Amino acid sequence: MSELDANDREKLSDSDYAFPKERKEPICDADHVRNAIARFDQVEGVSDKERDEAWDRIKRAAKKYDVEVSEKSWHELGKS
Known about the structure:
By secondary structure, the protein is mostly helical.
């Protein structure tokens, strides 16, 4: 995954983040989408509504970048 430094992150639009208000979890390419999924439960200080909205953004980005997501909901993350 290409690392985003502070300058790169600043250049991203809010829509390039799973959590745009907090500017957390960039979803600007396939690697970052996978990372956002893996780290989803580590994001603190957000409501379930914000998580629902972030999950929708992640799913759209996953489709755009051809990333397979088997979970239907963020509630399924980490469960076998």
